[in-house]
Amino acid sequence: MKNFFIIIFFLCCYQFSQAQLFSGDQVLNNPNIDQQRWSWGYFIGFNSYDFQFKYDDEVNTNGNDLIIEKTIGFNVGLIGNLKLNNNLDLRLEPGVSFNTRNFRPPSTIETEEINATYVHIPLLLKFSANRLNNFKPFVVGGLSTSINLSSNENNEDAATRLKTNTYNYEIGLGIDLYLPYFKFTPSLRGVFTINNEMVRTTYPEVNAMHSRAVFLNFTFQ
């Protein structure tokens, strides 16, 4: 599933880049759009969430790791961008993401479904190359917090209880594509939870649980 996101991202970038590099059209679209100190936009996209488990070796003596069944989720949100200089921007990208993960022990066919609706708030630094015709590649990184609106942290009867608040670091890459009326940006980003997300689980071999995610977003500014 992560490979699918990567393929879609590079196909988008390739098609637009080929059109700009090898067409005879050298007209710059929106030549002053990056000169604004503040700019705004929105994004939509897809996600794939995973769990990384930390096992108790004394309990999990057979090395039977839990099997994760991932699905494709959906992202939507807003963007606030502060231009620091020609190659550096500070970005706030609050949004909402929806996802479902299933996991099960390898010896059973029964799965436990984990539904999550996250309010995701990243603060990112965007490092861009110089603009070439109508595209500009960049890398991005920073920290974020996620509020799990579906958290069952206080439900003592739940089999697996997840915390409401998690903290993450993020790193990714993308390309700004300058179209006649707006800037379109496909980006691919990894999101990695720092703190232990688990309150309690029915699986005694699990000591800690951390979310791992890939976001494929399409931004319009």
From TrEMBL:
Domain Outer membrane protein beta-barrel: 31-197
UniProt KW keywords: Signal
InterPro entries hit by this protein: Beta-barrel_OMP_2 (IPR025665), OMP/PagP_B-barrel (IPR011250)
Source domain of life: Bacteria
Signal peptide interval: 1-19
UniProt protein name: Porin family protein
